[in-house]
Amino acid sequence: MVSLSSVMLSFVKGIQKSKVSLLGAFITTVTFPVLVGAIILDMLGYVTNTYYGFFIYMILGPAFIFGLVLVFAGLFFFKGSREVQIFTIEYLQDQVSDPVRFSRVKKLIVLGVALTIVNISVVSLLAYSGYHYMESNEFCGQFCHTVMNPEYTTHKNSQHSNVHCVECHIGSGAAWFAKSKLSGTRQIIAVALDTYPRPIHTPVHGLRPAGETCEACHRPELFHGDKLVIREHTLDDESNSKVNTVLMMKVGSAGDRAVSSHGIHWHVSPEHKVTYVSDLSREIVPEVTLTLADGTQKVFRSGVKIESGKTETRTMDCIDCHNRPAHIYLSDLEAIDLKFEEGKIPRDLPFIKREALKAVNKSYKTLAAAKSGIAADLQAFYQQNYPEVLKEKQAQLVQAIAGVQAAYSENVFPDMNIGWGNYTSQLQHGADFDKGCFRCHGGEHATESGEVISSDCNICHSILAEGEKDPAILKTLRGE
Ligand code: HEC
Ligand code: HEC
Ligand code: HEC
Ligand code: HEC
Ligand code: HEC
Asked: Which residue's CA is minimally distant from atom 36 of ligand 2?
C-alpha cells in the first residue's frame, strides 16, 4: 500500500537521487519566473531590443524546455528511476479502479494535470511568441547587424518597407518555415565563425517561387493598360541642368478572362512558359525555351557556351525581372540624380553633379572615411575654383555635402564589400543595352528557323522624350 504522501515523497526523492533531474529542476525553477516575466514584457511591447528577443526565445526558452526534459529523463532513465518504480501501469490501474484509493491519489492527479497545463501553456506561449519574433524584420535584419545591414537599409528605403522580410523570403506554411530555419541555423553558424561571404551571394537560389509570395499581393493577370514613366536626370554641366526622359512602358497583362496576355507581363501568363538556361549569376543566358499551351516549343540560342555543371535552368517568374523589389541599390548616377530630384542637393552650386560623382567614386575602407572624404573633396573643389561659394553659399554647400553622403551611405556598404554596381537590377537594359531584359532581347537569340527574340525598342516602351530640357510631351500632359 502506498499513500499519497509517500508517492509525493518518492517523486521528490527520485529527483533528489538523480543528479540529472536535480540539474533539470534547478534550471526550470530559475528560468520559469524570468521567462514568464520577459515574455509578458515583450508581448506588451515594452522591449524593442533585438538581442533581448534573442535572449528570451533562443536561450531562455530552450533552457526551460531542456530543464523539463532533464527532470523526466532523470526520473525514468537514470538514478531517479528506482524511486518512481511505483508509477507502474499496474499501480495506477490499482489506484484508479478502487474508489477509496482513487480518492487518495485524486489530489496528486489534479496537481499533475495542473502542472502539465502550466508547462504546456508556457511552452506554447514560447512557441507562439518565438515564432513571431523570428518572423520580425528586426530579427532578420538587425540581429546579424553588419551582415544584414545593407538589405535592412535598402528594404527600409523601398516601396516594400511595410512588407516583412519573411513575406517574400519564406511565405506562409510550416514546410517553408522549417526550411528557412534550417538554412537560418547554417547562416548563424557562418556569422559566428565569420565564414560568410562579403557581399552575400545573389541570386538567392533557394528563394520560394514568386508565384507563392509576390502574387499573394500582386496579380499581373489583372493588370490593364500602360504606365507612364518620367525619369529626371541631371547633366554634369556647370548649371547642373535638369532633363527628362519620358517613356510609355507597355506593362501589359498576364491575361485574364477578357484580355489575352500581352506586353511586358506576357512572360508570366499561365498560357505559356518561358524557361531559360543561364550561368549561376543568371547574367549570361545561352538558351531560352518558349512552351505554348498546346505543348509546341521554340528554342532560342545565342551561341554562347557555358561550362557544364555551372548552369541553372529556371522558369521565368517575377524576380527574373523584379530582382530588386526591396533591396534597390542604385548606380552612382541614379543615386546622385535622385538626391537632386528630392531637393537634397541644391542645383545652384556650379558643377556639383560632376564633383559629387567624382567624390563618391573614390574607394574608401569605412563609411566614416567615405563621409569625411566626400566633405573634404567638395570643400576643396570650391575653395580652389569658386571661393565665393564658400562665402555666399555656405549653407547650400553643407546641404549638398549631406545629400551626397546620403547617396553614398544608402547604396554603398564598405563593411560588406558592396560598392557601386555590385547588385544590379534586371528591370532595365543599361545604357549599353547589354543587361537586364537584353540578356535575352539583345537580338542574338534565334531559333534554328531564324526567328529572333525581338530587340525592337517599341515592344517594351515608346520613347516620348529622351534627355530633353522641358519636353513638349510633359507640357501637353500638364495641359499647357
Ligand atoms: C518584396 C519582397 C522582399 C522583401 C520584403 C525582402 N526581400 Fe530580401 N530579397 C528579395 C528578392 C527578390 C531578392 C533577390 C533574389 C534574387 O535575385 O535571387 C532578395 C535578396 C535578399 C538577400 C540576398 C542579397 C541580395 O541583396 O540579393 C538578402 C540577404 C535579403 N534579401 C534579406 C532580406 C531582409 C533581411 C529583409 C527584411 C529586412 C528582406 N530581405 C525583405 C525580396 C524581398
Ligand atoms: C504583402 C504584400 C506584398 C508582397 C508579398 C509583395 N508586394 Fe509588391 N507591393 C506591395 C504594395 C502594398 C506596394 C505599393 C507600395 C507603394 O507604392 O506605396 C507594392 C509595390 C510594388 C511594385 C511597384 C509598383 C509601382 O507602381 O511602381 C512592384 C514592381 C512590386 N511591388 C513587385 C513585387 C514583387 C516582384 C514581389 C515579390 C518578390 C512583391 N512585390 C511582393 C505589396 C506587396
Ligand atoms: C519580363 C520582365 C517582367 C516580369 C517577368 C514581371 N514584371 Fe512586373 N514589370 C516589369 C516592367 C518592365 C514593369 C514597368 C516598370 C517601370 O518601368 O516602372 C513592371 C511593372 C510592374 C508593376 C507595376 C505596375 C503598374 O502599372 O504600376 C507591378 C506591381 C509588377 N510589375 C509586378 C509583377 C509581378 C507580381 C510579377 C510576377 C507575377 C511580375 N511583375 C513579372 C517587368 C516584369
Ligand atoms: C529569359 C529571357 C527573357 C528575359 C530576361 C526577358 N524576356 Fe521578354 N521575351 C522573351 C521571349 C522568349 C519572348 C517571346 C519571343 C517571341 O515569341 O518571339 C519575349 C517577349 C517579350 C515581349 C513581347 C510580348 C508579346 O506581346 O508578344 C515583351 C514586351 C518583352 N518580352 C519585354 C521584356 C522586358 C521589358 C524585359 C526586361 C524587364 C524582358 N522582356 C526580359 C524572353 C525574355
Ligand atoms: C525588352 C524590352 C526593352 C527593349 C527592347 C528596349 N527597352 Fe529601353 N527600357 C526597358 C526597360 C525595362 C527600361 C527601364 C524603365 C524604367 O526605368 O522604369 C528601359 C528604359 C529605357 C530608357 C530610359 C533610361 C533612363 O533611365 O532614362 C531609354 C532611353 C531606353 N530604354 C531606350 C531604348 C532604346 C533606344 C531601345 C531600342 C534600341 C530600347 N530602349 C529597347 C526595356 C526595353
From this structure: 214
pTM over 0.85: yes
Domain range summary for the chain, segments of one domain joined by +: 4-135, 150-200, 227-326+426-478, 332-416
Q: Quick one: average pLDDT of 287-298?
A: 95
Q: Is 269:316 a contact under the CB 8 Å cutoff? A: no
State if residue 437 touches ligand 4 by the CB under 6 angstroms criterion: yes
Checking phi first, is residue 2 left (phi over 0); if not, alpha (psi -120 to 50) or beta? Answer: beta
- Region 53-69: mean pLDDT is 85
CB-ligand 4 contact for 274 (6 Å cutoff):
yes
**Cβ atoms 190, 196 nearer than 8 A:** yes
Q: Map grid coordinates 508509477 to a residue.
A: 87
For cell 489506484, what's the residue?
95
| Ligand 5 site, CB within 6 A | 229, 231, 245, 247, 427-429, 437, 441, 455-457, 459-461, 463, 466
pLDDT in tens, 138-181: 777 666 667 888 999 999 999 999 998 888 988 777 777 777 77
